[in-house]
Amino acid sequence: MTTPYPRTFSHIGLSVPDLEAAVKFYTDVLGWYLIMKPTTIKEDDSAIGQMCTDVFGAGWEEFNIAHLSTGDRIGVEIFQFKGQQNPDNNFEYWKTGIFHFCVQDPDVEGLAEKIEQAGGKRRMPEPRYYFPGEKPYRMIYMEDPFGNILEIYSHSYELTYGSGAYE
């Protein structure tokens, strides 16, 4: 058996209770680019309507969506569904599924402060070092103003973990 080709990452999809506010947050705070303005998608016989019915099942009625892109060209779909339910605690890491996404910024503390000033919050009191006293790799868990969990790394994934795991 041959080793599979390492696929590239295309996009993530986030659900939020306020699409306009989320677009503002992610463009102003994280600097992501708006590539498709907020649009309403309706449950109908159009190609996109049929595709969404295949994904969500019948009865979804409509939703709003915007498309953004990160600095490294990863897509971000932001959805606002009708009747959206916002849990009190969106950090259910013990359940199957994606529980966070991570961005990279050499100024971990500065970005954490920007997120807080824009209505987000810290999930940790301060950034932590992966290799204290040895390497400058830092991280912190945050929450956007809509309850989505994001992590900030100071250095690339490869640098952080290529040095060995938690020795």
From TrEMBL:
SUPFAM superfamilies: Glyoxalase/Bleomycin resistance protein/Dihydroxybiphenyl dioxygenase (SSF54593)
BP GO annotations: L-methylmalonyl-CoA metabolic process
Keyword RNA-binding: no
Pfam families on file: Glyoxalase (PF00903)
CDD domains recorded: VOC_ShValD_like
Presence of keyword Magnesium: no
Protein name per its UniProtKB record: Lactoylglutathione lyase family protein
Listed PANTHER family: BLR8189 PROTEIN, METHYLMALONYL-COA EPIMERASE
Domain VOC residue range list: 8-155
Keywords, sorted A to Z: Lyase, Metal-binding
Source species, domain of life: Bacteria
UniProt-recorded Gene Ontology molecular function terms: lyase activity; metal ion binding; methylmalonyl-CoA epimerase activity
Annotated InterPro entries: Glyas_Bleomycin-R_OHBP_Dase (IPR029068), Glyas_Fos-R_dOase_dom (IPR004360), Lactoylglutathione_lyase (IPR019883), MMCE/EMCE_epimerase (IPR051785), VOC_core (IPR037523)
